[in-house]
Structures are given as structure tokens and as C-alpha cells.
């Protein structure tokens, strides 16, 4: 399912995903702590960027982290063991064919996974099968359409739209954050509540300017330049101007806003 | 300055502004409480929608609420006295010609004012003159470009853009929320910090669906239909579809997001 994963699996990408998780971990994981002894399935762990945060925040919970990519799993295992965590087991598995009995897990966690899937409701239903009744699901997703900034720039907006279009071509949906509520409801979860996690950046927050606007968001847009040029989604000169204009928002009088959405629900 | 105020001064508008303040008061005013005995200038009080919240939240502070419109001031006075508050004095005045000595007030408060002014920095500098050194300014503004929703609709987006364009034609700026940080910095205030106040609405929040999405936001967009048609900004059929699509976001599986920004700073 994630073979055509839009972010790619390059080493640089791997670094970016980990940077992103470190900068955002407090914001995204706030409120997510699992009780001692509980069995938690992390679906789509990728290179383990969120796994280490889960393992740290809930040291006495037992995590099972699955991903479809063996390569990502190796990176995730290496990261988790190099940081000394022993409460995570890894399995290679597709969300649609999870090798677990019904009602196996106390809790489910997934972060930046649904955005890549052409059938998020089917995925959520497959996950629901292995969740115990009364257990929780936590799903975190971004929403590229939540992005705005100062100064405004039609070139920067168009470059971001390329990212949205490329992900859509690959069967994903990078506007999924705003849809978590109906997706969880339609997947038969109960007590759905969604809490937005806005990243508001101005120059009084240099860590976010570097860690989020530049090294996470702009780096992510820059990462699809080749695909955008190949698909003739934009003229190269306009693209380059869009990237320059995004960098312009990181100056003294610029601002940058992006919102992640965290959905929580029960089976 | 506010003669061509884009929201208009009709009775219906007056009701809307008050509805809006009641629904949003807790979110916008959270954290704004003034000490007993302090002198607070509310600039651009309009029909008193925020004035009653200020008076209630800081019952022992003394408010001076000014507006350029005598008609609005009469409505504000009536509202404040009908709710039994006695801690507000009203004066008719233009922000650019405030009839007060330098350093007269302990605190400044303004809400939904800068968006209407062609020269927000000049306004903030005029206000700064009457603020005591060490006193605070609190400025709350919306940002129509922060709006997004599910399901997406190009017609609804275009109708919202009409509102932005009409306000721009009148010399205002309805994308000002994201600019509060640089505006306050450029107006020589110190210690500027901006806290976004996002309104996230899904069908688990029926009060916000009614009070915010329908009766505040969609009503505001609908309020400029005549101007939008007169200026040929959109075909009427497209406009009507845009409004229908905005209402579509208030259904069971819809979501709606808007963000206000609260800037606070010191002289």
C-alpha cells in the first residue's frame, strides 16, 4: 500500500521525519499516555519517528509496531534499540491483513498513515477488528490545506498545491486532517472527538521557524520538486519563486500556520 | 473611518455581532482579566458586543469605550446599561484623534477593529500614545483566509473570497489575523505574543454549528451578496451554490474551521 509513498524513503527523508517528530512530539503526543501493561498496536510505524515518543511517554505499556516496509522496520528497530527502549515489538504487516486475532489490542495508534491510503475507512475498519471493545484509537494526521502564511504568495500556494495533487495521484489525501471526525464515525467508532493541534510560527519562536517551517514543511514541499516538474504541474521558475516565498515567511516579519488533527475514539 | 464598515449597521447585523460575541466570548476573552481599579480603553467598541464581556469579566476595572459612530455608541450604551453594568464610560472618538493625554490608560483592548482600517500601524501608534509605559495592549482579529471545511467547494471558497475582496476595496484587510505579530512589532510594542484561537466545528458540537458556522460565518458571507453581485465578483448561480455548499459543511459529516488571533504586547 505504501510502496508509492509520496515522501519517499531516502536517507534525507528519514532524517526529516525524525526531526519533525522531535519538534512536534510534545504538541502531537500531548494527552496520549497508555497505562502500564496495556497492549498497544502502532499501525504504519514507518522509520519509528513516533515509536520512540510512544515508548518514552508510556514506558510500561507494550507496543507492537507494524509497517508494510521491511526497510522502514529495520530503521525503526535500530532507532528504538539505540535509544534503549525495550517495550516495542516489530512485525512486518499490511493494515488490511493484520495477523492478529479479533479484539487483541487495548489501544490503537496511527500517525501520518491514513493520508497515504486510498481507502481510509476500510483501513480503520480493519484496525477496529483487532481492537478490544472499550479500547481507544488515536489517529493523527496533517492537512496541507490548513497552511497559510504572511506574506501571502500565489507561487507558494501553487507549490503546496503540487504536493496535494501528487499525493492525490498516488491515491492519498493530504487534506485528511479536517476529515478525521467523519472518517472515524463512518468506520463505526464511538465517542469520536477531534482536537486540532495548530502550529503557529512567528519570529519569536526560532525553534519552530527552523524545526517546523524550514526543516519540516518547506523541506517536504521541496521534496516533490522533481515529481512536480516531471508532471508539468508548474513552471520551474514559478516553483523556485514559490520556494523562495515560503522561505520569506521565516523572516522577522513573517508568520506561518499549519494544523495537525488528532482524532480519538472508542470501539 | 468606519463609515463604509463592510458589515453594515443594520438591526440584523447588530443581532449577529452580539450572537457572535456570546458564542465566542469564552474563547476570545479567555486570559483577559483586568485588575481592580485599572483604566482600560476599548477602542472601536461598535455596538458593545465585546464591551459587555469586558465589563463582566473585569467588574472592578474602569472601561472607557470609544467608537467613531454615534449610532453604534447608543446601541452599546443601551446594551451595557440594560445588563446592569456601571463600569463603562462611552465617548465618541476617532482612533486617530483620541482626546486623551499621553500615558492615560493602564491597558488597551480592541477586537475586530484593525481589519477595517487602511493604516493599522498608524492606528496602533496612535493608541500607543495614550497607553502608560508597562501597560498592555490586547488586539483580537479574525482571518478569513484561515477558513477551510469539509466537503471542499470551489464555489464556497469563491464566495468567501468575495468577502475578502470587498473588505479590501473598502481599505480593510480581512487576512489580518496572521499579521498581528509583525503589526504590533512595527508599531513599537514590546514583548509581542500572539495566541491563535481556532474554532473547530464538527457535528458533535451543535452549539458551534449553529452559533458559529451558520449564524456567524455563513451569515457574514451572505451579508455581502448584494455588494458581490453589484460588483460582478461572481455569477449569482455560483454564489448561491457557494452558500449552499457552506451550509453542507454543517451536516452530520461536515467540518468547519476558522481561526481568530489574539495579540498581546506591552508599551
Any overview of this molecule?
The structure is a homodimer of 267-residue chains. The first copy, chain A, has 267 residues and is of the alpha/beta class. In chain A, 40% of the residues lie in helices and 23% in strands. Chain A has helices spanning 11-29, 51-57, 70-82, 120-129, 154-169, 180-186, 206-222, 225-230, 236-248, and strands spanning 39-43, 62-67, 88-92, 105-111, 131-141, 148-150, 190-202, 255-266. In chain A, strands 1, 2, 3, 4, 5, 6, 7 and 8 form an eight-stranded mixed sheet that branches. In chain A, α1 (11-29) crosses α7 and α5 packs across α9. The longest helix of chain A has 19 residues, at 11-29. Chain A is globular. Chain A starts with 10 loop residues before the first helix and ends with a strand. Residues 1-5 of chain A have low confidence and may be disordered. Chain A binds chain B through residues 143, 145-146, 148-150, 152, 175, 178-179, 181-182, 185-186, 192-196, 198, 200, 202-204, 252-255, 257, 259, and chain B through 143, 145-146, 148-150, 152, 175, 178-179, 181-182, 185-186, 192-196, 198, 200, 202-204, 252-255, 257, 259.
